[in-house]
Amino acid sequence: MEAASITETASAGPPARKLGDVINAYALPALLIAALVAQFVYDQTGTLNDIKTGLSNGTIWALIALGYTLVYGIVELINFAHGEVFMIGSFVSVSLWATFGVDERTGIPLMILSIIVVLAIAMLASGTLNVLIERVAYRPLRNAPRLAPLITAIGMSFILQNVGLLWRPTPDSAPDLIGSQKDYFTIFHVGIEHSDVFAVVVTVPLLVALLWFIGATRYGKAMRATAQDPDAARLMGIDVDRTIQLTFLLGGLMAGAAGLIYALYNGTIRFNQGFTAGLIAFTAAVMGGIGNLKGAVIGGLIIGVIQAVSDSGEYLGLPLGPQWTPAVVFGVLIMVMVFRPQGLFGEETREG
Amino acid sequence: MSFGVAACGSSSSGSQSSSSSSGSTGSSTLTIYSSLPLQGDSRAQSLSVVNGEKLALAAKGGKVGNFTIKYVSLDDSTAAAGKWDPGATSADARKAAQDKSTIGYLGEFNSGASAISIPILNEAGVLQVSPSNTATGLTRSLGADKGEPDKYYPSGKRTYGRVVPADHIQGAAQVSYQKDNGCTKSYLLNDKEVYGAGLAKNVAAAAKVQGLTIVGNTGMDPKAANYRSVAQTIKASGADCVFFGGITDNNAVQLFKDLHAAMPTAKLFGPDGVAETAFFSKLGASLEKVTYITNPTLDPKLYPPAGQEFFKTYKAKFGTEPEAYAIYGYEAMGVMLQAIQNAGAKGNDRQAVIDAFFKIKDRDSVLGKYSIDENGDTTLSDYGGDRVQNGKLVFDKVIKAQTS
Q1: B278 to chain A: closest CA residue
Q2: What residue ranges are annotated as transmembrane (chain A) (predicted)?
Q3: How far apart are CA A217 and CA A212, in angstroms?
Q4: Chain B residues with CB inside 8 Å of A269's CB?
């Protein structure tokens, strides 16, 4: 593996790329796109609908996947509690709306204001929680064998799931503030729903801000340096512990935002939503290339589309269906891993 | 969780045959275990069933003849699963099987769970009565999967019965209810559990008999975030009604919301598996108008005086309306106590009590007069059709199921 930080894409330039590498790098994405195009030729409207649903669902996976990939990039730890941090984001959002008394009947200006305020609080809550988890369960184990923080991560995941269970033991409805499944407009027979627009409108600015933060600020530079070589970064005067904390905070902020979008998008929240979402998002991060921010986002979108196509019951006349969706998603993941173990867009972690 | 077994100190390596050989408990204090999912969406329903069982025992003063009956409520669910769990279920069944004072076992709530506990209790020769299992394959071969029901009874003798009509009856009632409400093309979805998949199969079979077109029948992923693509596919199939065979814990609320958003005029049907507060209190006004539920529990007015008395006593004692299956919890305990009573002096002999159970004829119960047939099934067959209003289940009508 070439050395690279969590964002720099081989700026040093690998010496000479072999033809095989190039084919590997582009063949798989091309194959996935070809598979989708074939389905499009087979059934235009259905496929467009799947792409639309898949991309908007995928934005939620992408936001969660970022948390996995950021943390892995910097401390090489799979934060298994990350799905639960996302779940808490949903719970905080719905509880806040209930406390403020905001529901479908609230006027539009107040509603928008409440969404913005609740988004900020939910992001902060999830971010703080993630930082606390790091402080309690991971930092003391920084120099312990790899397995130790893995187990504490799983432990934190179960503890938080039980907190969710105590908080809301049965699934609860989120207020349908955005009129989630009403159509804004129809294009090529595909209805673009409020929730689709909402997911994109919230996610894109967050992504841009995150990329800018990591790419252009001093803190971002410190993060990249720590990801590359924590010891050298420390020698250069970077507070490594503080930088790792910041990474967990950023991952948590994204998860909190995903939690709010999930609640408004789907309309139902439950204590174990984080488990599945975490697994899917982790898969997205691995598929895109763990440690790679763009990879995580695109991986999330790809998985969203695969899920939507499989859910809709048919691929090129082959019967699929919602009961096969998890198998299809992981089947594609295995295929990608076999031919490209570093993920579609390449792993970006510290040097072996 | 499965810690219960370890905590009671009984060695799990001890073979089960040791307990199965001893027919008589030889004791004057007998234990009846209950095993229900006390966590997850079914919690309210399960607690209500436990209350029903306790009421039935209290009505007998906690005694049958010279035997004192001890009641122990176990949990077959885990927090992590949020619903019944195979490990927790077999731990419960083993606990009961290994306790020498055990005379009966009330459970499970879910058919898939009973498929796990029946063989364990069958080898131990313990009478098991479920308040709520409806999967046909647990007792009957007709309409069941290959190897059912014999694979559940390794001893070769029947030890299991139920007080609720099985799903060949609910399937027929579902189809009647759908046709009564103007369905012409129905789409079936199921949660892939023993109960849900089996029920969908029964609905499909009944639809053939009664002449209702089924345009699709697929399983769903209970862990999915939403079902929008699925809903689009069902919409494109031209279905005017959708039936979900499954339980609330398997994401039923989310599924109904997404189906209703995609097809606002389609009528959505659910079975007894969603006839619980955790489901129908979460639908919202618009969705309530298109939701139809089949439920073995009828309007209190339609029950004999003893049944009407049950609803009054329950409300007076616990301060809430009972959930749908509370009355079946009451009757499951009631019929088990009757079997012990009918066994007379051999009321502490497990096999004698099982024999007595299968001989029950024309029992006057809170549900009406019924017998237990050779499969362990009740002879009752009336199903209720329910609607939802303001977050509450409202009785609509009795469906006289027309089985083939």
Answers
A1: A170
A2: 23-42, 58-78, 85-102, 108-133, 145-167, 197-214, 244-265, 324-340
A3: 7
A4: none
Q: Which residues contact B401 (CB under 8 A, 6 or more apart)?
A: B165, B169, B170, B172, B173, B176, B381, B382, B383
Q: ∠ CA(A105), CA(A109), CA(A115), 5° rounding? A: 80
Question: Which residues of A are less than 8 Å from B220 in CB distance?
Answer: 322-323
Q: Which of A60, A162, A267 sits opposite B257 (nearest CB)?
A: A267
Chain B residue closest in CA terms to A261: B225
- As given in the structure block, the two tokens for residue B261 are 């958003």
Q: How confident is the model over B317-344, as a mean pLDDT?
A: 94
Q: Do A46 and B236 touch (CB under 8 A)?
A: yes
Number of independent structural domains in chain A: 1
Predicted TM-score (pTM) of the model is 0.83
Which tens digit of pLDDT belongs to each residue from B170-220?
999 999 999 999 999 999 999 998 899 999 999 999 999 999 999 999 999
Q: What is the ipTM of this complex?
A: 0.78
Q: Are B9 and B286 in contact (CB under 8 A)?
A: no
- Contact (CB<8Å) B40/A268: no
Contact A307/B80, CB-based, under 8 Å? no
Domain of A308 in residue numbering reads as: 42-171+185-339
Q: Which residues of B touch A (CB under 8 A)?
A: 39-41, 43-44, 79-80, 82, 192, 216, 218-221, 223-230, 232-233, 236, 251, 253-254, 257-258, 261-262, 278, 282, 284
Domain assignment present for residue A25? The answer is no
Residue B82 and residue A308: Cβ atoms within 8 Å?
A: no
CA atoms within 13 A on the CB side of B386: 25
> Within a domain: residue A28?
no
Residues facing B269 on adjacent strands: B243, B292
Residue A8 forms part of a structural domain: no
The pLDDT value given to residue B39: 87
Cα distance from A312 to chain B (closest Cα, Å)? 5
Answer yes or no: do B40 and A308 touch at CB < 8 A. Answer: no
Chain A contact set for B42 (CB, 8 A): none
| Residue B140 pLDDT greater than 80, yes or no | yes
Within-domain flag for A348: no
Q: What's the CATH number where A83 sits? A: 1.10.3470
Interface test with A, best of B218, B227, B232 (most A CBs within 10 A): B232
Pairing label, strands B29-36, B102-107: parallel
Instruction: Give all strands (DSSP E) within B135-290, no chain letters.
Output: 160-162, 185-190, 213-219, 241-245, 267-270
Residue B364: C-alpha distances to residues A217, B300, B331, B338, B380 (Å): 80, 16, 10, 11, 12
- Chain B residues with CB-CB distance to A281 below 8 A: none
Q: Output the pLDDT for position B350.
A: 95
Which residue type is seen at B112? Answer: G
Give the DSSP letter of residue B243. Answer: E
Contact A312 B233 (CB under 8 A): yes
∠ CA A30-A32-A35, rounded to 5°: 110
